[in-house]
Amino acid sequence: MNIDIILQNMLNPPVLFFFLGMLAIFLKSDLTIPQPLPKLFSLYLLIAIGLHGGHELSQSGLSTYIFKALLIAVGMSMLVPVYSFFILRMKIDVYNAIAIAATFGSISAVTFITGITYLDTIGVAHGGFMVASMALMESPAIVIGLVFAALFAKSSDAEDENTSIKEILREAFLNPSVFLLIGALAIGILTGDKGWHSMEPLFGTLFKGMLAFFLLDMGLVAARKIHELKKVGMFLIGFALIMPMVNASVAVAVAYFFGIEKGDAFLLALLSASASYIAVPAAMRLSVPEANPGIYLPLSLAVTFPFNISLGIPLYYYMITTFWG
């Protein structure tokens, strides 16, 4: 385990702004962010992630190998929220089960960047197209979450027992967050390198700055409601620690079966093990406001993220070397 890499990524400024937001609440500071702005930050991040992924995909093309890797990525982002939801429903309400399942079905960009740094440090090659797989893994979990919301949340409220599949899919795919993310990905593919460079000053250079604002607001929100995490006890904390290892193990097995190369397989495992604290929280705040960000955000950012950064990365790479040699 490389301590320098761990410290370098634990001291990432946007992540520290999340904890600064929490600290402001704990110390009873008057720090606030005007309410229209958090929604703008959410929209910005969805566009930036989609555009970047589309640009990377337009540059790498779509060979059979890349198609297999992207297919595994999308498959994992659809599979993880499904079994996560039913595990979570054994202990918690439907809205929070949906939000947590979607959070763990999606990915963490900072964890992904940490994984690339780790591979570069130890000299293991990896494909640039994996950035596109990261972008593709953002939205399926959101769609699955919204489908579950239409199926289970509405039926539990007994408001609309006759919801049609057509209506469920319409609600899922035309949800503002998913629509914007997929639309930005398509624009990134269509406009390619020229389009990305024309937008890069706003959606590339400023990304970390806007992410810092977003995470500062998330820190404020999470700290205000973190006491609710105590109500659900060790079950969710155990979930946030065990599920990344389970998800990584599944991804490693699938990647090995399909002949994915070592570095790309590691990134697939890490993406599958990570949990979102950007796109999904942004989407859940817009689409499932009944879910409590004081539960799903601390699980992702305060439990799973540090675990993956400190212990998960060397653990998942150990899995990879066990299979690939």
From TrEMBL:
Keywords: Membrane, Transmembrane, Transmembrane helix. The keyword Zinc does not apply. It comes from Sulfurimonas sediminis. The lineage of its organism: Bacteria, Pseudomonadati, Campylobacterota, Epsilonproteobacteria, Campylobacterales. It holds the Pfam family Sbt_1. The chain crosses the membrane at residues 6-25, 37-53, 65-88, 95-119, 131-152, 172-190, 202-223, 235-259, 265-283, 295-319. Coiled coil: none annotated. This is Sodium-dependent bicarbonate transport family permease.
